[in-house]
């Protein structure tokens, strides 16, 4: 298990991980995303929809730099088992906010295949929002198979499994300030 944060190496169950993106780099990229959103939605009302569990840290830190009138809500979906996507997205907690005619920004920890996003898009589009965009801390362009790439991206990364800062391996490892990459 992860013993503490800010370590060079961590072991979670059978897998070894090494430091990949520092807390500082994460926070700087979040400030840039927040600044773009603040500019793009100036004077507009907006609803942020965070995707649990992975996006809880990103959502919390991003919101501290958003200076718009906004609502914050969460949905819960799951598609990953271990270190790969199952290909099936399950909705565990649906949308409880009224988003009709409102601007929606989906908050993701990471966009990988884009499967989760397509599912979320249709879930949200179904409720007639004014617009829908996606802000994600991390994006793996090489793994993306979707139609619409995310508009607001903190950092682009290669197609390798990572943990930390909200992202899990077997539900463990979410509680770190830095992000770690799997050692192969
Ligand atoms: P997608 O549906 O785009 O393939 O994957 C979306 C979800 O899978 C993400 O929101 C995240 O929860 C999980 N995921 C994708 N890539 C990674 C990764 O490298 N590490 C971890 N821990 N989860 C990932
Ligand atoms: Mg996620
Ligand atoms: Mg996961």
UniProtKB/TrEMBL annotation:
Principal place of residence: cytoplasm
InterPro entries to which the protein is assigned, alphabetical: HGPRT, Hxn_phspho_trans, PRTase-like, PRTase_dom
Enzyme nomenclature, EC number: 2.4.2.8
Ranges of residues in domain Phosphoribosyltransferase: 25-169
GO cellular component: cytosol
Reactions this protein catalyses: GMP + diphosphate = guanine + 5-phospho-alpha-D-ribose 1-diphosphate; IMP + diphosphate = hypoxanthine + 5-phospho-alpha-D-ribose 1-diphosphate
GO MF, any single term: nucleotide binding
Keyword terms: Cytoplasm, Glycosyltransferase, Magnesium, Metal-binding, Nucleotide-binding, Purine salvage, Transferase
Subcellular location: Cytoplasm
GO biological process terms, semicolon-separated: GMP salvage; guanine salvage; hypoxanthine metabolic process; IMP salvage; purine ribonucleoside salvage
Entries under SUPFAM superfamilies matching the protein: PRTase-like (SSF53271)
First-tier enzyme category under EC: transferase
Family indicated by similarity: Belongs to the purine/pyrimidine phosphoribosyltransferase family.
Protein name (database record): Hypoxanthine phosphoribosyltransferase
Organism: Brumimicrobium glaciale
